[in-house]
Structure formats: C-alpha cells, structure tokens
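task queued by scheduler; priority normal; single chain, no ligands, no partner chains; default sampling; output format set to structure tokens
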Amino acid sequence: MAHETAPDGEPVTTGKEKLYPLPASAARSANMKANRRTNTKPELALRSALHAMGYRYRKDFRLDLPARRVRPDIAFTARKVAVFVDGCFWHACPEHGSKPKNNEWYWSPKLLKNQERDRAADAALRDAGWTVVRLWEHVPVADAVAAVIAAVGDPRTQRGVATMSPHADFRPPDSTHPPQPD
C-alpha cells in the first residue's frame, strides 16, 4: 500500500492497513523501538525489593479471565493480587504525563485507549475476585513496596512457604543415645 503525505503533514494510507505517523527522525525511531513492554527499570526495582523480602510472584503472567485477557506486571496468584507499574507517558499520568506535540492526531487517541484498556482490565480483575494495585513509575520503591504489602500481606503466611519456625510435633534426635530398634 502506498503512503502519501497530506497537506497538513499527516501520513495518508490507502487500503485497510493501520495508520501510523512517520518518525520525526532516525533517533526518535530508535528511541521508540527501545521502549519495553515488560522488565522496565521501575518494575525491576519493585520486583527485586519484593523478592528480597521473601515474596514470590509471577511476572508478566497472562490471566484468561471471563471478561478479557489481562497481563499484570506482577501477579500473586494465591492471593489474587495483580500489580501494574504504569509508565507516566504511556498511561497519561496526571502529574508527569506529557502530551506529544508532534503527531497529536495519533497520540491523543492512543493514550486515551491505553487508559480505557487499564480501566477495563481493572474491572475484569475485580469482577474475577482479584485485588488491583496500580503504581506510577515515579512512585519511590519504598512506597510501592508498602502498597503491595498492604494488598498481599505477610509472605510467610502463604500456603506452601517454608518458615524457620519449628513444627510442634518435631523433636530433634538426642545425639547422646542412638535410636533403639522397635
């Protein structure tokens, strides 16, 4: 399909292909290609802090819910807690999100769709009995950890997690007397 440029500088396509803006420069194109969907620095920092505290979770875990498919950044499946670390630009943070001046015709609807998708995912998770924790990338790691802990609880009380507390019926063997045959 052919790409042409309209008088106002917007790309025009013919046919049924999606309409994307032309990159402003090779540097901008490389920058946009380098953006990650998962394993972002804020997400890695949060996961590292949680893991160091004894929390175990699934990362980028696909949940096939009745209403829709959702992929939380961090999922505590036993506790049904989904954690999202949202980027300020991509999810239109009211404090730090910026509105692009170039290709505004493309970016405004895209960022709005991202927000709508976030709300739909939140609703689908809540309808399925999950707790949703949404954090902005600019939230300090200590505050993010506190928010997750408030939703998840103590990692030592999860099913199947070993602790250092002894079992009530366990007595260590007496090393001075060898075991007697029955």
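post-processing summary
- The beta strands are 3-5, 11-13, 58-59, 63-64, 69-70, 74-76, 81-86, 131-136.
- The chain has a mean pLDDT of 79.
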